[in-house]
Amino acid sequence: MTSNNKSSSFVRIAAAQINTTVGDLAGNTRKIIDHIQRAKAEHVQILTFPELAICGYPPKDLLLKTRFISDQMERLDEIIPLTNGLLVVVGLAIREGDSYNAAAVIHDGSLIGVARKVGLPNYHVFDEKRYFARGEFLSVFHLDVANVGVLICEDLWHPETVANMASTGVDLIVGISASPFSVERCIEREILIRSRCQDHTVGMVFCNQIGSQDELIFDGRSMVVTPHGRIVAQGKAFCEDLVIGDIRFEEIHRGRLAVPIQRDTVPTETPGREAVRIIHSDGMTDPPHRSDFSLDISRNPFLPKSIEMKYDPVEDAYNALVLGVRDYVRKNGFENAVIGLSGGIDSALTATIAVDALGSDHVFGVSMPSRFSSEHSKDDAAQLAANLGIGYKQFPIETVFATYLRLFEAEFSERDADITEENLQARIRGNILMALSNKFGYLVLATGNKSELAVGYSTLYGDMCGGLAVIGDVPKTWVYEMARFRNRLAGTALIPENTIRKPPSAELRENQLDADSLPAYDVLDGILHAYIDQDCSVDEIVELGYDGMLTRQIVNLVDRAEYKRRQAAIVLRVTSKAFGSDRRLPVTNKYHA
Question: Cβ atoms within 10 A of the Cβ of 383, count?
Answer without folding.
Answer: 18
